[in-house]
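User: Can you help me understand a structure? I only have the sequence.
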Amino acid sequence: MSLTVIRPTPESPIEWREARHWSERHRLEQLVSHCFATQHDARITQYLPRLFGLWQQERPVAAVGVRRADEGRLFQEGYLDASAEASLTQALGTPIARGGIAEIGNLVSSRRGLQRVLFPYLIDQLAEEGLHWVLFTAIPAVINGIRRLGIELMPLRLADPAWLGQDREAWGHYYDQHPWVMAGDLRLARERLRAAGLLSTLREGDHVRPA
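Assistant: Let's start by predicting it. Here is the structure, written out as tokens:
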């Protein structure tokens, strides 16, 4: 199935919201598949349980998926030698509860600069839900973009695609860019964003709440 990405004007208001209806989720899945195909020659057919998007003129322009660690095994745990909470506990030297961890994935945007808009919304959202740590896999360009927001990230290990087996082929040349498994402290990130004034533009109604 092909997807025609219609680009709203940069001046159009941006709305952050979670896909609640199947039609919204389908449009976000299409955007994820399209961006991974064009940017990495990858075939994405699996999506995280919750999908959030940036919308302009009712069209998705960026997307990200979320899965809580207390709701099942994380994709990121395939790269790790231990569970998410054990890996973080070892790296930090302090006990980390599984219930405070989530992973993000399916991260895409239809044009440059949108991830800088997306991450303050995402971090505020997850911190508001009581989550403390986020895990994700990202290529160096994405990692550097997040760090430019003033957010501290902790590398856990290079993402080795060997555990994917035959599914490795579906990822195209994504792993040629040497992605890393990263961790971030959501509460600290939220404080940094607020101090930098990057949360002050979140409008009432843009911040979605868990159902």
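Now, to help you interpret it: The chain has five helices and seven strands. The first helix runs from residue 22 to 40. Let me know which part you'd like to focus on.
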